[in-house]
C-alpha cells in the first residue's frame, strides 16, 4: 500500500461529527480590544502547533461542559478568540469572534497512536485542519472519539500568540474550569512598539524536502549514564545532555549522507519569565516570553557534548539584564540574526519538560500520553518532553527522511534510548 493509499484509508476511518465556533462567555473590555504583538511574537514562525492529549476514561456527555468551560476560559485568554488585523500587521483585534471546536470519530484505538514511533498521517488525522469563515482562527480544538472509548484532545494554537509555557497554562486553566475550579488569570503584555519585523525562518525554506518525524524515549537511567561521561564539573541537566547528544548524532547523520562535515548551528529555546517577572508572578505571563541560546560548532572536528553544553550555557550567561518583554525581544532579534548569519545548517530545540502537560485533567484523569506534532516547522526540529511516568524524556525528532534513516540507527541513539 502506497503512502497516498494509507493516507486516504486513514481519512475514511476518521469522520467529522460537528464543528462550531466557541466565543468568550463575556465580552472583552474596550481597553483590551487591540493587542499589540511583542517583538518576540513577531519573530516566531507564523504556524499553528498542535498539542495532543490521549485519555482512556472519557465520559460521554461531557462535550457541552467542555464547550462551556472553554467559553469561560477565553474570557481570560481574550487574544486567542480574536483575529489578526491584517497579514504582517503585528496586532490582534480582540473581537471575541471565537475559536473553532471540532468533534470527530475514529475507528482507531488509543494504542494505535501512543505506541507509534513514526508521527505520520496517522497522527495528522487527529489535528484540526478545517476552517469556518475567512479569517484564520488563532486556536482550533478537535475532540477525537476513539473506538476503544478513549479520546484524543488536540489543541492547535498559533505560535504568534503563545509559547509552550503559555499553552500549558491555557489548557490547564481550561481543564480546571471544566472541573469546577478557579485558576489564576494570565497577564498578556501588550507591546508598546508596533515596529514591523521581517519574519525569520530559522529552518530555511525546504518545501521540496521529504521529512520524517519519529519519537524516541530516553530513560533517566540512561541519561545518567551519559552524564557520567562528560566533564563532571558541568553537572549537565537531562535536557542539556540529551539535546547535545541528539545534535551530535543529527549532524553526524548529515555528514555520513553527504560525505563531508556539515557546518552547523544549534539553538535552544529559553524561557525568560523569571528574569523579567520575578516580582510579578512569572507563572502568569502569557504570550511568547522567550529567546534562544546558540551553540556554533566547528567544521573541522567531531562534536563534543561538553563543548556544546558549555557554549549553550555561555550564551545564556551572556544575555544582558532585561527589564521587560521588549528587551527580551531585542535579545531574541540579536540571537536570531546570529544563528542565521551564515549558510550553516540549523537545528532547533525546544523543551517542555516539567511543564504541567501531564496535569491536564478535564475530569477524566491525567492523560495517558502527551505529544507535540512539529511537522509544520520544517526539518531539523526537536521537541523534548517528559515521559508519562516522569522517569525519562521523550524526543520528537524531525529530520530529512534520508538522514533520519541514519540517525535512528546511530549506535549512541540506540545505546541511550529504549523501544516504545
From TrEMBL:
The terms under GO molecular function for this entry are: acyltransferase activity
Q: Which domain of life is it from?
A: Eukaryota
**Any idea which UniProt keywords this protein has?**
Acyltransferase, Transferase
Can you tell me which family this protein belongs to? Belongs to the plant acyltransferase family.
- Protein known as: Transferase, Chloramphenicol acetyltransferase-like domain protein
Amino acid at each position: 500500500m502506497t503512502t497516498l493509499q494509507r493516507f486516504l484509508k486513514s481519512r475514511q476511518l476518521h469522520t467529522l461529527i460537528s464543528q462550531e465556533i466557541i466565543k468568550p462567555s463575556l465580552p472583552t473590555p474596550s481597553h483590551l480590544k487591540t493587542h499589540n504583538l511583542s517583538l518576540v511574537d513577531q519573530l516566531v514562525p507564523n504556524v499553528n502547533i498542535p498539542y495532543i492529549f490521549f485519555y482512556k476514561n472519557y465520559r460521554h456527555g461531557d462535550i457541552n461542559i467542555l464547550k462551556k468551560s472553554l467559553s469561560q476560559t477565553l474570557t481570560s485568554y481574550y487574544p486567542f478568540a480574536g483575529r489578526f488585523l491584517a497579514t504582517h500587521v503585528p496586532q490582534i483585534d480582540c473581537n471575541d469572534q471565537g475559536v473553532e471546536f471540532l468533534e470527530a470519530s475514529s475507528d482507531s484505538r488509543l494504542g494505535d497512536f501512543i505506541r507509534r514511533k513514526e508521527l505520520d498521517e496517522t497522527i495528522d488525522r487527529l489535528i484540526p485542519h478545517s476552517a469556518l469563515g475567512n479569517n484564520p482562527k488563532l486556536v482550533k480544538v478537535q475532540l477525537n472519539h476513539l473506538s476503544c472509548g478513549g479520546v484524543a484532545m488536540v489543541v492547535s494554537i498559533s505560535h504568534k500568540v503563545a509559547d509552550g509555557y503559555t499553552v500549558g497554562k491555557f489548557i490547564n486553566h481550561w481543564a480546571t474550569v471544566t472541573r469546577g475550579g478557579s485558576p489564576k488569570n494570565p497577564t498578556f503584555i501588550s507591546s508598546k512598539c508596533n515596529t514591523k519585523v521581517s519574519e525569520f525562518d530559522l529552518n530555511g525554506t525546504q518545501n521540496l524536502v521529504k521529512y520524517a518525524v519519529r519519537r524516541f524515549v530516553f530513560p533517566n537511567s540512561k541519561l545518567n549514564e551519559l552524564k557520567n561521561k562528560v566533564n563532571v564539573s558541568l553537572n549537565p541537566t537531562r535536557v542539556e545532555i540529551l539535546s547535545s547528544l541528539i545534535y551530535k548524532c543529527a549532524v553526524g547523520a548529515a555528514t555520513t549522507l553527504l560525505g563531508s562535515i556539515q557546518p552547523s548551528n544549534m539553538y535552544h529555546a529559553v524561557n525568560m519569565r523569571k528574569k523579567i517577572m520575578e516580582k510579578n508572578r512569572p507563572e502568569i505571563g502569557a504570550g511568547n516570553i522567550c529567546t534562544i541560546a546558540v551553540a556554533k560548532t566547528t567544521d573541522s572536528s567531531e562534536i563534543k557534548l561538553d563543548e556544546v553544553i558549555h557554549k549553550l550555557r555561555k550564551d545564556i550567561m551572556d544575555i544582558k539584564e532585561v527589564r521587560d518583554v521588549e528587551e527580551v525581544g531585542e535579545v531574541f532579534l540579536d540571537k536570531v540574526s546570529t544563528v542565521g548569519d551564515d549558510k550553516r545548517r540549523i537545528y532547533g530545540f525546544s523543551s517542555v519538560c516539567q511543564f504541567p502537560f501531564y496535569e491536564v485533567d478535564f475530569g477524566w484523569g491525567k492523560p495517558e500520553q502527551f505529544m507535540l506534532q512539529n511537522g509544520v516547522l520544517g526539518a531539523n526540529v526537536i521537541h523534548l518532553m517528559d515521559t508519562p511516568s516522569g522517569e525519562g524524556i521523550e524526543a520528537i525528532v524531525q529530520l530529512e527522511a534520508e538522514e533520519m534513516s541514519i540517525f535512528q540507527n546511530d549506535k549512541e541513539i540506540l545505546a541511550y534510548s529504549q523501544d516504545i
